[in-house]
Amino acid sequence: MTSQVFYRKWRPQTLGEVVGQEHVTRTLENALLMGRVAHAYLFCGPRGTGKTSTGRILAKAVNCLGGGRGEPCNTCSMCQAITEGRALDVIEVDAASNRGIDEIRDLREKVRFAPNMARYKVYIIDEVHMLTEPASNALLKTLEEPPPYVIFILATTAPHKVATTILSRCQRFDFRRLTQDAIAGKLEHICEREGIRIEPEALRLIARSATGSLRDAENILEQLYAYYGTDISLPQVRALLGISGDPRAHEVARYILSRDVTAGLRTINSVVADGLDLRQFNRELVEYLRMILLVKSGSEVAVDLTQEELEDVKSICATSSTEQILKAAKLFGGIDLRLDSYSPLPLELALVECALEEGRPPPPDAKQPEREAPEIEPKPIDRAPTEGKTYPPNVEYLRQNWGRAVEALRGVGSKGNLDAFLRNACEPVGLEDDTIILGFYYEFHKEKIEDPKYCHLVEEKLSEVFGQPYKIRCTLIGKERRPPSRGHLVKAAMEMGAMIIEPEEG
Ligand SMILES: [Zn+2]
Description:
Blueprint: H1 5-9, H2 22-33, E1 40-44, H3 51-63, H4 77-83, E2 90-94, H5 101-111, E3 121-126, H6 133-144, E4 150-156, H7 164-167, E5 171-174, H8 180-194, E6 197-198, H9 200-209, H10 214-228, E7 231-232, H11 234-241, H12 247-257, H13 261-273, H14 278-296, H15 307-319, H16 322-333, H17 345-355, E8 384-386, E9 389-391, H18 395-400, H19 402-407, H20 418-422, E10 426-432, E11 435-440, H21 443-450, H22 452-466, E12 471-476, H23 488-495
Parallel strand pairs: 1-4, 1-5, 2-3, 3-4, 6-7, 11-12
Antiparallel strand pairs: 8-9, 10-11
Helix pairs in contact: 3-4, 5-6, 8-9, 9-11, 12-13, 12-14, 13-17, 14-15, 14-16, 16-17
The chain binds zinc ion.
Zinc ion (ZN) binds at residues 64-66, 72-74, 76, 78-79.
């Protein structure tokens, strides 16, 4: 926990100072100017977005002795007492810790008494959804017949948990998650006043990692100030946050989905060069891919993103197919860096795998003509009868159509990626009756496919694709036979015994 010194010190004192909630503050200011103040407000929105701060400003504005309507003067004795939290007539209740009927009964009793000094008695009840049902009912009674000198300001992060009877009594305002620009702007202001020199990139990173909560951002800045003093650099922010919030995880996700291998590898290597924990990096990457997938599937509400981030994600969604995002999420999600969290190889392999043209899904929403690959037509004239069944005559036929057989394995295996595993791992080298001889370039793949559970899956698909039952037999033909299709990186990796994807038990 931090001391929240910055948060308290730099709390907005006027409606105009509240960051990023202009739709709320402008309406309130107009109401104040016209003398139309409601008796119950409900401020909804994520934590750290200014709900209780706005409540306090409102309490000052209605009680200000400065005479003017609208903003509080912040200099009169009433404003100062409220700012300092010693005004008897402004009562803050944390419903999270005072949930019970007794507290609300007590409140109901006291509501009856006119204000001591102020014009209005203002109750600011935070996290009002936490009240127990009896307490909530008791509060409702008060809201139904409020004395003219009382104003209730209810705040909540979960309006859906507030009783509808209470909701209907309140004027509701929805506070928004703050944009990164808004947070960065406020932090910049604080830094200037506090004499803190901070790199712009570092500021952006704090703003980003605060996910829309100004209070979180201010607390992070305060911690940095406590640790590092008045000069704050990007690496320091990274160190404090862990990798969390490193924009490169998002960059890599973008490169994966735009199939930009070069830029993707470069970024991964810069992460490695900075000595970051790749396990954490990958976790963040997968989390981002998950958000992209959610947004792509229309579940925007399920993601915790600022408006800017959401726009970013949407732009990625516009150019990526669901299949493509799913593939990336599966591949990176399946990476296990437990043994060596400093080797980038698994990340690089997954990146390259995602970018492979083979099995490239059609672009989103594009109506594609039927696949152009040659149809497999088992030509009766070519078939040689064997024990009452017919088989393609030669290995050439199988080789020509092998790619399609592999494609058919998409979605097979527990991770649904047996196709990716087999692709570029082997080729048909012979045919003996109903047995296809598969020549593997690496022992590793051969062993996997020889495992009966995978062997079975492959045989099943081959039968489907070629229209008749087949068995397979695996043999090692060596890496020299491997077509040079993947580029040096993956090839080198394979020679080191790496794999593209490891299928798991299905
Ligand atoms: Zn005042």
